[in-house]
Each structure stands twice: as C-alpha cells, then as structure tokens.
Amino acid sequence: MADTFMSTAEAVQRYIRDGDQIALGGFTVSRNPMSITREIIRQKKKDLYLVVHSQGQALELLIGAGCVRRIELAYGGVARFAPTGYRFKKAFKEKTIEVEDYTNYQMTLRFLAGAMGLPFIATTAGLGTDITRISGFPKESRGKGKVPAHKLKIIKDPFDDSDVVALQPLHPDVTILHTQYAGEDGTIRIEGLSFADIEQARAARHVLISCEKVLPTEEIRRDPSKNCLPPFLVDAIIPTPLGAHPTACYRFYDYDPVHLNLFKKAAQDDGLFRRYLDEWVYPFETQGEYLEKVGREDLLRIQADPVRGYAPGLDRR
Amino acid sequence: MRPYTENEIMALCAGRLVQNGDILFAGTGLSMLAATVAKRIHAPEAVVFFETGGIDPSLDELPLAVGDSRVMTGASLNTGLAEALSFLGHPRLRVIAFLGAAQIDRYGNLNSTQLGSYENPIERFPGSGGACDAASLASGVIVFMKNEVKRFVRKLDYFTSPGWISGGDSRAKAGFRRGGPVAVVTDLGVMKFDETTREMYLSEYYSSTTPEAVAAATGFDLDISRARPAAEPTERELAVLRTQVDPQRLILGPPPQDVL
C-alpha cells in the first residue's frame, strides 16, 4: 500500500493551510469532493482562495461556512437545486468574498497551462466582453501572494496582429478531487467525464483525492489506458465510499435530490444554514457516521445502475 | 384553448432551426428538448454534446445539469472540458450552441452574470460557465429568453457573452472568426438578426400574440415589419415531443389543459 493512504483529517491537517489557493474538482452536481470539504470546515480553515470552473455543492458549503476569502470562477450553481448558489449569491452581493469572473474555457485553459508549464495561454473567447474588461478583485489585493497583478491582458497575436485574450496559468497550492478508483500503488482512475480534474491535479503543488474504491495494484495496471494520474503526482489518498454525496459519482451513485432539496432550503437562510452545519458537518469525525445520518433508505434510492451509471427512474423533483 | 404550451412551441421552433448534421452544444432545459426533438424528426444525423465532455450520449433520461451522469451514458466519448470546449470553434464542424440568459440587447449580446453595477450588484446569476465561450467560438447561437421588457434591454448590466457586439461588422472587427446569434426563441415568437445591421427583428410570432404585443414586451425598438405567424406545431411534432422526448414532462412542465 502506497504511503499516501491516510485519513481525511490527516490529509487536511498536513496539506491545507489558511490562505491557500485551492482548486476544487467535479462539476456542479457531480463528483464534488464533499467529504474532504466537510473536513476543511471542521478544521476551521480560513481565507481560502478558490479557483474553479463550474462548481456547485462544495463551493456553496465552503462559502457558507466562512472558509473562503476569494474566488476565481466561471459558474457558481447546483443545477436545478440552486441555479445560482444561494451562499455564493449572498456573499457576492454583501461583498464578504472577492470574486473574479472568467469563462469555463478560460479557467480550463489556465489549469492546462499550469499543468503544461506554459508561460501563458491565449484564446479569442471573451474578447469585447465585460469578462475581459472588468476586474472583480480590488486593487489592494492585486499582486500580493497568489493574486495576480492583472486578471488577464488583451494582446496582439504575434503572428497575425489580431486581438487575443492572454491568460495566466494556475498553480494551485492544493487540488482536491473525488474519483471512483485508486490503486494500492496510488494510481488514480476516473470513470465517465473527467471535467478538468486531471488538469487541475497536474497544475497543483499538492493533490488530495478521496475515492470510492481501492483496487489491487495488478488490477489497476491491467488496463493503464483507463488511468489518469500517476502515484507521484498525488499526496494523499483517502478511501471514502460516497465521498461525493450529495453530488453524483458516475456508476456508483446519483445525486441525492432529497438532500439537495434539504440543502436548498437551508442555504437560503442564515439560521437554517448554521443548523445545517451543526447537523450535517460538525458532528461527524468519519464518513461512516455521516452516512449513518444520511440513512440506508436514501443511499439505496440513489444507487447507480452499474451499466447506465445513474439511478434510473430516480425521483429528481 | 391552444392545444400546446409555451414550452412546447419554444422547443419545436428552436428545433426547426437545427440542420441535419449540425453539432449541437446543448445546455439543459429547453435546449435539450429542441435538440432531441430535431434529431427525432428532421435532423437524425445531428449530434448533441456537452461542455462537460459528454459527446453524443444516448440521453435515455433527460439530464438536469450538464454535469449529470446522464450525459455520460451511451456516449461516443466521455472526455473533459478542455476537449469539449475546443470542439466549439473547430473549423471543420458547424457547431450550433443553445444558450439562455438573464438579459439580451438588440445585437444579441447576453448577460448571465449580474444585475446592477459591478460595484453595487443587486442580483447575481451563476456566471458565464461555457456561455461566453460558445458565443465566442461556435458557428451560431440560438438563444432562449422570456419575452419581457426587463430582459430585452437597451444596455446590458453586465456583458457576459458576445453576440453581434454593436452591429454591422463589429463582431469580426472584435476578433471573432465566425459565429454570432442566429435566432432568439421567446415565449411570444422568434427573433432574427438583419443581415447588414445585425439588429434584432421579429421574424415569427405565435398565434397567442400579435407583433405589437411582442414589441411592447421588448425593451428596445423592435422591427416588426417582417413578422409573420409561426407555423403551428404539427401533430407529429407534438407527439414526438410528448411521448418520446420528455414523457415525464420534467422540462415541458404541466400539459396544456392544466395551463389554461
């Protein structure tokens, strides 16, 4: 067993510091690293600087719990359960967090540029819009620590002199993912869409991964073309069944409409949200205790059909 | 009583704009219905893909989000954002993107970020996601909007996604190699854009309304001189939509008798 296997508490303690720049994997309602997110809240990490493309549930929870100082993002919402994340919306309007808007392609390209060691990366996406005209981070934050001096720059394409958007690469302090599999050797495998998880992991200084299942080394190496990260890029692996709950994990479970509706209600009210944290985040030291609270009935309902990858006929209202 | 709902005619009118062989960048909601109904009726070779990386999934159940596991099942390819978003601007593909927004102006520029000034926001929406990318890079964009004065505005509170920018050839001058909005499908009719000025005009209106009523529900001067009645949904279109595309009415919502 690789020595990167550890508990959630140990991984967060060892690798996440106040003020760190953190990339969250997954996408809106899928494969959010929820068990690690809850542990970050329990350990009361603060001033986090999130860098995401389209994030939903983990983003909402971290903002709501007061762990976040600033965000670079393209989209903050949990699909139909919160078309705009309620805690994100409130924090943006009340200016309790600093927000910089990008597009999904721009954020993805920035992770990719970070992963590939490129000095910058350019695209035409966003030319002429407020995304390339307006900067959301205040001047006094600019150029300090991980905050870049410029959001982006419009430069001339050196080959044909047209305008292009030049973007800076991202090098997050930590990237946090939830995946389906890890091998005993520390190799990582994602099934279904990878979103920008692989680029986010390859761009980061440290990588923390919770996974549904651990496979013997010989099994995960039998089909290496399915694997996406080598052991030497991963700092901590935490075997965590249902670690993305209440978001979905393809071929393992669907998103949990019952829980997401409950969260939707709680997220719209400060008092109810504090009670949500008291009820669903703070009390549980282990994933087992959390799952007991969620309950067998709920978990059976969202269990995925292994071929289709989701729970067919699930009541998703 | 009309034998169909607003959502039904919007999905069908948008679906009619799809050409066989188009590569469709779909969101969720009405765009899923438009793409799927077009595939089943007149564009069987159209391909649906999602910014998250799901390429041509079987869509046996409607996804509620572009990150839903339902966009992964039965797909030709499961990949990620980098690959999927790169298909938007691929020169060999005719890519049509479906987008929604909170505000639109006369040139089809979109706001999906916020209301109020950037310094003093009064409302916040999720943000661009891949919308600005699609509006920048795709061959064409079809927009879904509720036809309201507060949504069809003279000036966007925040300019998230590029349409025809300020009309004429301003889009090409801004640096975009192709694209621009093709149509805006609303709950009252279908808007298109003048070939020269790139200004929005009313192309078709539903039998529930009049061109004057559409103009009154639009916050800028709308050219209605070219407006004609939209073709009524055929029985086949409605049957395919209701029995094959969204039998649970997850996106369609209540059937006609409950609406009226």
Give, in spatial order, the strands making up the sheet with the most strands of chain B: 2-1-5-10-11-12-13-14
Shape of chain A: globular
Overall residue-averaged pLDDT value of chain A: 97
Shape of chain B: globular
Low-confidence stretches of chain B: none
Number of helices of chain A: 12
CATH homologous superfamily name of the domain at 18-167 in chain A? Answer: Glutaconate Coenzyme A-transferase
CATH architecture classification name of the domain at 18-167 in chain A: 3-Layer(aba) Sandwich
Structural class of chain A: alpha/beta
- Overall number of structural domains of chain B: 1
Using the coordinates above, name the CATH class of the domain at 18-167 in chain A: Alpha Beta
Taking Cα atoms only, what radius of gyration of chain A do you get, to the nearest Å?
Answer: 19 Å
Number of continuous helical runs of chain B: 8
Query: How much helix, percentage-wise, in residues of chain A?
Result: 25-40%
For this structure, the quaternary state is: heterodimer
Sketch the topology of chain A as an H/E string, one letter per element.
HEHEEHEEHEHEHEEEEHEHEEHHHH
Largest interface by residue count? Answer: A-B, 66 and 54 residues
